[in-house]
Amino acid sequence: LGHAEVRNPYHAMGIQKQIRWLDVPVDKSGRVDSDEPAGAAFSGAPQVVAVNQKNVYVVWEDTRDGNSDIYFARSDNSGSSFKSDKRLDGGDDNGSNNSFAPKLDADGDHVFVVWHDTRNGEGRDVFFNYSSDNGANWSNTAQRMDSDQPAFFNSTFPVVSLIGDQAHVAWQDN
Fold this sequence. Notes:
The strands form four sheets. The chain has a four-stranded antiparallel sheet with strand order 3-4-5-6, with no helix packed on it. A four-stranded antiparallel sheet has the order 7-8-9-10, with no helix packed on it. The termini are far apart. It is built from no helices and twelve strands. The protein is mostly beta strands. A hairpin with a 4-residue loop joins strand 1 and strand 2 (20-21).
């Protein structure tokens, strides 16, 4: 089946001084997701964070396996190329539930990603995953953040700010 609207996350790099885009060689024409063929699935709601002079992190929601999952890719060469993407919303089967609206922040070696998710029923819960080594390794299972009964309220649209290894997270409850 095709999608009425297909998107893939891409990356480009610019320098603020004269607002010009650099002619930097980028793998896959700037594409950071790896589902094949390009455009076969919806990849949307991308977020990007750059730390120091070399680390660039991108997170997005992706339907390559059915419903939306959260994927992450990292670059350690200022965005010239990206390592293979990794699914972050583990703990349920790929594509079995919807995970939406990822947000990320990074400080030093620490990377923190939050999103809302339907794995516990009709109401949405806030989940997170965390890396302490520049996004190279993550937990295989995402952790639930909100403290009410699972799926009791709609906990949605989380945001995150990181200071060292301390994450500050806020979200909306209905």
